[in-house]
Amino acid sequence: QVQLVESGGGLVQPGGSLRLSCVASGRIFRIFAMGWYRQAPGKLRDLVATITSDGSTNYAETVKGRFTISRDNANNTVDLQMNSLKPEDTAVYYCNARGSDYDLKIFHSWGQGTQVTVSS
Question: What pLDDT is attached to residue 115?
Answer without folding.
Answer: 97
